[in-house]
Amino acid sequence: MVKTIAIIGRPNVGKSTLFNRLIGKNRAIVADNPGVTRDYIIETYTDRNLNIELIDTAGLEETNKKNLSKILKETSKKVIEKSDTILFLVDVRSEITSDDLFLTKLVRKSGKDIILVANKCETVKQDQEASKFDSFGFGESINISAEHNRGIQYLKSLIYESFNHKDVGDELNLLKEENKIKISILGRPNSGKSTLTNFLLKEDRQLVGETAGLTRDIISEAFKWKKNNYIIIDTPGLRKKSRISDEVEKKSSKSSLRSVDISDISILLIDASIGFDKQDLLISNYIEDKGKPFILAINKWDLVKDKKDSKSEILDKISKSLSQFRGASTVFISSKSGHGIEELMKKVLQIYNLSFVELSTHKLNSFLDKVTSTHTHPTDNGREVRFKYITQINSNPIYFAIFTNKPKAVLDSYKRYILNNLREEFSLSGVPIKIIYKKTDNPYKRN
After folding, report:
1. Long-range contacts, 285-290 (Cβ 8 Å, 24+)
2. 244 confidence band (pLDDT: 50, 70, 90)
3. For 170, phi and psi rounded to 5 degrees?
């Protein structure tokens, strides 16, 4: 089975760079004559035993806008007709153009599978700016940097899923099932991930033992808990990069992190005898960066003798390390005996539901008035920084946009002040929140 995937987008959005990144080599594209389209190129390659025919609509020479648009339309129509799946590529660094809008209509009419990809996203801030493409109607964009290999693995995982082919693995088909909350379990080796999986599944599905690194593959299984349907995703242990020398383990670690992308909520398992350390912080930051909610589960709690002092020490360290994730839910459990699992699953359901919350514009703006008048922002070179309007632009993950006259002047400390009060006001502890500061007109603009 060969699947044809086309990269569609206007000139200079990075199609050729993405093409080369996906096929794993550089392929030069040379124009025969300037001022016309260079013929689209096709490369057939194999990835994970899947045969992919990738098409790049690269190399438009811009002689004039009218000619460029005509060429763009002709080549895009031709390539879309040949493809099964379309990677619709846009550039996060530039404003939406008429060519972007034309291509939006073109790919929508095609009836083909569409993956919206925002390129040149190299920072969390640029990830947030990609929300402007939500208006295209293709759902949340997949944010990547083709040049720096950022987000490419996740994009590939979506390409694998589009095959719906047995070679992809039963776990990907399982993950497509609706009405099931997908939980990924992450943590360092020997933290008890497989033991927790076995407890939830009520069977010895995973091999467990004292030896670290027994789990090498991602394992997905469906289970039911208190009338709710779940899918558990058990992952290989994540060690520090400097300690990984085995090639198989390197691939396993990448798979573990990819599980965050396909899950609704993650459980970061901490060994109580070791406590919260730098590696756990890196994992939690990765999850938070993806905009996914997570719970910290302190495992092997039954083995801790001085529980009171140990609990205070662990919570204090977590509070200091995860200050940006104020109120992260922490549960003390024993995956072996089942202690605390009931509380853990209650938290999973609670935070999962909370990540879909939608707040009214009226309540949000009453909140903004209150916090900005209680504690005003310092002036910027003598000019007042005014906060005009707030609105929620997305849920799961939760995104807000705040409109201000000077977005670049808003201090980080003030951003934290607004974020912390927002969490407290609307009981949003435990879920990731992104706030974008924008300077733009809006229908509720205040003079």
Report:
1. 286/257, 286/260, 287/186, 287/260, 288/324, 288/325, 288/432, 289/124, 290/260, 290/261
2. very low
3. -60, -25
Q: What angle do CA 187, 191, 197 make, to 5 degrees?
A: 85
Q: What percent of the chain has pLDDT over 90?
A: 21
Task: Identify whether residues 307 and 265 lie together within a single domain.
Answer: yes
- Distance (Å) of CA 171 to CA 194, 235, 236, 276, 287: 16, 12, 15, 30, 21
Dihedral sign for Cα atoms in the order 127, 131, 133, 136: positive
Instruction: Give just the sign of the alpha carbon dihedral 168, 169, 170, 176.
Output: negative
Question: Based on the domain organization, do 36 and 179 belong to the same domain?
Answer: no
User: Do residues 294 and 391 both lie within one domain?
Assistant: no
Q: What is the pLDDT of residues 364-393, one digit of tens each?
A: 999 999 999 999 999 999 999 999 999 888
Whole-number pLDDT of residue 120: 93
Mean pLDDT of 136-152: 87
Same domain, 326 and 373: no
Residues 192-202 have pLDDT tens digits of 888 898 889 88
**Alpha-carbon distances of 274 from 130, 277, 310, rounded to whole Å:** 39, 8, 10
| 193 in the same domain as 325 | yes
Check: CB of residue 87 under 8 Å from CB of residue 117: yes
**53 and 135 both lie in a single domain:** yes
CB 277 within 8 A of CB 414: no
Asked if the structure places residue 336 within a domain, the reply is: yes
Cα dist from 247 to 212, 216, 238, 348, whole Å = 16, 11, 14, 33
Global pTM value: 0.53
**Which pLDDT score is estimated for 90?**
93
Q: Which amino acid is at 184?
A: S
* 214 burial type by CB count under 10 A (0-12 exposed, 13-18 middle, 19+ buried): middle
